[in-house]
Amino acid sequence: FRHSSQYRFWSFTPEQLTQKRIQVNAQATSSVGESLRNFISENQANLAEEDIKSIEEKAVPVTMEEEIKLVSIYAKKLQGIAQHLNLPTEVVGTSITFFRRFYLENSVLQMHPKLIVLTTIFLACKSENYFIGIDSFSQKTKRPKDSILKYEFQLLESLRFSLLVHHPFKPLHGFFLDIQAVLHGKVDLKYMGQIYDKCKKTITEALLTDVVYFYTPPQITLAALLLEDEALTTRYLELKFHGNFQAASDSTNQESNEVISKSNLTINFDVLMNLITSCKQQIE
Amino acid sequence: EYTKEKKVGEGTYAVVYLGTKQSTGRSIAVKEIKSSAFKDGLDMSAIREVKYLQEIQHENVIELVDIFLASENLNLVLEFLPSDLEVIIKDKSILFTPADIKSWMLMTLRGVHHCHRNFILHRDLKPNNLLIAPDGQIKVADFGLARTVPSPHEILTSNVVTRWYRAPELLFGAKHYTSAIDVWSVGVIFAELMLRIPYLPGKSDIDQVEVTFRALGTPTDRDWPDVSSFPAYNKLQMYTPPSREELRRRFIAASENALDYLCGMLTMNPQKRWNTVQCLESEYFKEAPSPTEPSKIK
Amino acid sequence: DASKRFTINDALYEDPFIKDLQERKEFIASGFRVDYVYNRVLTEAFM
Fold first, then answer.
1. Count of other CB atoms within 10 angstroms of residue A266
2. Helices (H), A63-109
3. Is A160 helix (H, G, I), strand (E, B) or coil?
4. Residue A195, class by beta-carbon neighbours within 10 Å (0-12 exposed, 13-18 middle, 19+ buried)?
5. Which of A61, A197, B66, B276 could cross-link B77 (Cys pair, CB 3.0–4.6 Å)?
6. Residues 16-45, chain C, touching B (beta carbon < 8 A)
7. What tens digit of pLDDT does each residue of B91-113 get?
8. What is the complex's ipTM, to 2 decimals?
9. Integer Cα distance of A141 and A87 in angstroms
């Protein structure tokens, strides 16, 4: 994961992320301000006094906080469109991820979110081998082709050409299996299936938040599991990472203990629990 | 920062130039993606190259030095690699030894193994996609057909891999194949390095089936469970697999371990075919001659 | 650290979805392997 572009380009501390957004907003604000001044000076002659006054009163750039709200609203809309197009969960996830990353490099003042939503979904489909030709995509979304294609390069560049996204969905499948091994005989399969489905939904919602920049995909998965069933998840993590499993009493326990003892884990249980608990709180 | 000094190639979706990275004087290759070539916007091959080369940093995989947009064209800056294995195989004036072949195989497998452990299928391994760096290192290149290992239910196209290097499951139209298809390609390349002529040169997709099974035997449900369930299986000519003796005669220079290694990679049943770890850990790489030091390969 | 932080124990896994695929002819003939699927999702979980 540390070699991935997701870790190298798109992982931040909360402070770094805020700094980045302030910088993007400041840059856009100053360029908007400058183009406004140019507009007024170039059109001095045929602009009435009150026009200039209303421009100065109303054409006020949005703040960084307002940007975050606007991007979140459109990310939700994007999720709705992608789900309406019946795209697979991972493609929806990648669309959301691309869209939110775009607005870490661009301000809504430069590119209104509604202009980039479909391009983001279109590129995500291509990138995830779920190719939809532009003709049928433009037909399904009732938007002209070139309005979708014209921003593709800019989107790709803003993504810093990093298209491979690791989502918390595959780790969910992995933990679904490993929980069965570590808690062998102690978990009801049907119940696990319900947990699995609920976690998938929680994870898709989590992709709309900043946890994707602060935590790794498996940590987000464990936070989603913690949200769905705190007792089960804590039990699993204790057995897996705390090494305080009971003495082997019956055969199944013996097997599961083998599973645990063989995996020479170097993860500190307390650090991990604190980390996924804070991730859970942020998702909530 | 980058110059484009000489045009060295042109494909359907890209033009390749030789150039220099100004700040370091390093020779580079610039792959300029034609933006107009693909009516659906950015070309899928370009997206794949960008997507996978961004994630892979390995001595035996071509390095993506940089990417930039210029006048509406996407430019991939790649490390400059002056030659490839196809040139070596074809140029009969170049003599090489079993130790050289072993070295090329080792480097190729390391590169392919690194892709597979990152769950990336290359899907177009062939001699001219195995480029050779000035220091002799082999570099796996051209990720225009690559993709991540699919989710279990996903359906994949079988129309991948250049015909002569295409695994039998692809010839049968398989939709749920695995990284085993890349290992088959490496096996055919190994055979070609030993023979110095193409090993399974089918003249068409149909002929490729014929050529493959005539050389290696037609698979049956016994050695490849459910192979007969492929729709294309019915009209097949039945050939018996070559005996060990026939293989020895075909690959005179090959040791017993080399033959085991070849047969491991060219195992018909993809479930049983060796994976890259089994290849790398095979006796072939442990026995003499040891692989030539890459920089010493003439 | 290249060591994997898990061991594949498919005897302990109940995964009806994957088990079903494993029985289907087109999957078996294509080279589909359950251990490859488990290795993939467990690697992503423990990366």
1. 8
2. 64-84, 89-105
3. coil
4. buried
5. B66
6. 17-18, 21, 25-33, 36-37, 40, 43
7. 999 999 999 999 999 999 999 99
8. 0.94
9. 13
